[in-house]
C-alpha cells in the first residue's frame, strides 16, 4: 500500500481508488480495524464518482506501530498529516466508531478548511453517561470511569447476539479478517483516552454538514445518540439503521451506502 510519514516520522498507509479527479472521501476505521474494513463501501463510492482514500492510522492495518503508543490527539494529527501530504481539499471525512472520534480530534485541533462534510458511524461523542448525556456506553458511569475499560471492551449484554446475526455476522467476519483480539498496553491506554473524551463542543463549533448514523441494535450505546448529536451541530442530520449493530456500515452495507450517498449527493457531490 502507498504510505506517507506523519510529522514525527511514523509511517501511515492508505489505499486509493475511484476517480482521481473526484471529490475525496477519506475513510477512517475504528479501534483495531484496518482500512480493508471499508470493503463494502468502496464499490459504491467508486461508482458514484468519488476519489476514495481508505486509511490505516498508526497501530492499525499495515501502518507502523510505534512503541510509544498513541492517544486521540495524535490520531487527529495523523489525519492532518494525511490530508496535507495528499493535498486533499473539499474532503468528506467518514469515520466508524473511534474513526469518528478521530475526526472530532482533528477538527478540534485544526481548521476545517480542507473538509466539506462529515459522516459519523455509530459513535457517541461522549461515552461517559452523565445527567446531561444519557447516550453513552452502556454501564459506563462516573463511578467506574477509571476502571471500566481497564482490560478491554466490556460485554454490555445489549444488541443481537453475534451467533444470531446471520449474514450480518458473515459480513463482519469478512471485513474484520486479520484483526487481533488481544489488547496491548498501548491499545488499552488509547481505549481509555477515547472513552473519557467529550467531543460535544467540537461538534457544536463545526459548520460543515454532518450525518450521524446509528445502528438500531448497537451493542455499545442507545441509538438515541445520533439525533442528540445532530442537535448539537449547526448542520447536523441523523439516521438509524434497523436490524443493525455497532459496525453499522458492515452489517447493513446496502442501507448504509444508500443513506450515505443520498447525503453526499446533497451536500458534497462528487
Gist of the model:
By secondary structure, this protein is of the alpha/beta class. 32% of the residues lie in helices and 17% in strands. The protein has one domain: Alpha/Beta hydrolase fold, catalytic domain (Rossmann fold).
Architecture overview:
By secondary structure, the protein is α/β, with parallel strands linked by helices. The protein has one domain (3-267): Rossmann fold. It is 32% helix and 17% strand. Strands 1-2-4-3-5-6-7-8 form an 8-stranded mixed beta sheet, sandwiched between helices. A hairpin with a 5-residue loop joins strand 1 and strand 2. The longest helix is centred in the C-terminal third of the chain and has 15 residues, at 253-267.
Q: In terms of topology, how is this protein built?
A:
Elements: E1 3-5, E2 11-18, E3 24-28, H1 42-47, E4 51-56, H2 72-85, E5 91-96, H3 98-109, E6 115-121, H4 167-175, H5 185-195, H6 200-205, E7 210-215, H7 224-232, E8 236-241, H8 248-251, H9 253-267
Parallel strand pairs: 3-4, 3-5, 5-6, 6-7, 7-8
Antiparallel strand pairs: 1-2, 2-4
Low-confidence stretches: none
CATH C-level category: Alpha Beta
Q: Mean pLDDT, rounded to whole units?
A: 94
What structural class do you assign from the helix and strand content?
alpha/beta
Side-by-side strand order of the widest sheet? 1-2-4-3-5-6-7-8
Q: Which value, in Å, is the CA radius of gyration?
A: 17 Å
User: How many individual β-strands?
Assistant: 8
CATH superfamily: Alpha/Beta hydrolase fold, catalytic domain
Shape by Cα distribution? globular
Helix content: 25-40%
**Number of DSSP helices?**
9
H/E series: EEEHEHEHEHHHEHEHH
CATH topology: Rossmann fold
The description of the largest β-sheet is: 8 strands, mixed
Which CATH-level-2 architecture?
A: 3-Layer(aba) Sandwich
How much of the polypeptide forms β-strand, as a percent range? Answer: 15-25%
Separation of the first and last Cα atoms = 24 Å
Count of the separate structural domains: 1
